[in-house]
Amino acid sequence: MLSIKHLTKIYSGNKKAVDDISLDIQSGEFIAFIGTSGSGKTTALRMINRMIEATEGQIEIDGKDVRSMNPVELRRNIGYVIQQIGLMPHMTIKENIVLVPKLLKWTKEEKDKRAKELIKLVDLPESFLERYPAELSGGQQQRIGVVRALAAEQDIILMDEPFGALDPITRDTLQDLVKTLQRKLGKTFIFVTHDMDEAIKLADKICIMSEGKVVQFDTPDNILRHPANDFVRDL
């Protein structure tokens, strides 16, 4: 379980990007953080893997405070997918996929096996493993970005608007793929979006944020039936 307790991030000028949020995320849940620009959703996400350090409050993973963990080791054990994809252009697709397993000192046989398993999961041919990112379409590259986040058997996957730059058809296909992968693998996915339709399609629960605060944290059905206020109703 991932537990967020009274989490706050204050930037210079006393601006509270995240303001005293608390919520529990069960193992294997798909959670979507949604809000307008500046709502604090990405800041909250990036405090989970300590890309941003919290000012106050705490985050616990299975009862262990993330501040007690080495930040580099923490990030290697949490998958992270961003809109810019971030594949290394000078590395093959296989080398990109097994980047974290390589850092974790996996054997060549283990890395090769994992790369083949993962490329199969996203319905791309094994021959793509020897290609370079520039030889793939944007949608294909983002598929690789998703499975790279799963390569070292990470239990928690953070996704920061990963499909925002893609065309609607490719985005819809990748949404289906991500939901299928999450159900099949039983991982905890935490997904940031500004698109309510995307959040409803993907998430078990949606965390709606505004001005750094949680406005409502509930299932899509309950949010649609019982919006907490006009802000939620108008999303």
TrEMBL record:
Alphabetical list of CDD domains matching this protein: ABC_OpuCA_Osmoprotection (cd03295)
InterPro entries in the record: AAA+_ATPase, ABC_transporter-like_ATP-bd, ABC_transporter-like_CS, Gly-betaine_transp_ATP-bd, P-loop_NTPase
Keywords: ATP-binding, CBS domain, Cell inner membrane, Cell membrane, Membrane, Nucleotide-binding, Repeat, Transport
Molecular function terms from GO: ABC-type quaternary ammonium compound transporting activity; ATP binding; ATP hydrolysis activity
Biological processes, Gene Ontology terms: amino acid transport; glycine betaine transport
Cellular component per GO, a single term: plasma membrane
Domain ABC transporter: 2-235
Protein name: Quaternary amine transport ATP-binding protein
Species: Staphylococcus aureus
